[in-house]
Amino acid sequence: xxxxxxxxxxxxxxxxxxxxxxxxxxxxxxxxxxxxxxxxxxxxxxxxxxxxxxxxxxxxxxxxxxxxxxxxxxxxxxxxxxxxxxxxxxxxxxxxxxxxxxxxxxxxxxxxxxxxxxxxxxxxxxxxxxxxxxxxxxxxxxxxxxxxxxxxxx
Length: 154
Description:
Layout: E1 9-13, H1 17-26, E2 31-38, E3 41-47, E4 55-59, E5 72-75, H2 79-88, E6 93-100, E7 103-109, E8 115-121, H3 122-133, H4 139-144
Parallel strand pairs: 1-4, 5-8
Antiparallel strand pairs: 2-3, 3-4, 6-7, 7-8
């Protein structure tokens, strides 16, 4: 037996859980997963709709850590489109999309100043680029357009 099976929850230090819930659901499109209260304590988690295993715990019991979380990496299939959409909603970015060894990355802040890296991983960048470069030309269309191969030299 292995002692640790998986990572299930990542803690995000927030000032106000209701305010954070509104921001994560309306600005990022996350959904609320768990909201349990007990003895002055509220366990409140959110995650992207397609995320199954890992959730963000919006924790208000670490007031000295608000805005000081380590940068969390959030995956996307299209960093530029994600950047444009989130920036259009008013989300503050500290870095526009940049090519990095691991892919394309943009960095944004939540309402408390915690950082998130929006990353389109290299494998996805390479796959999309390869698909575009390897498209087989439509020879019939080329012939109809009179490409040099089809032009009669006489």
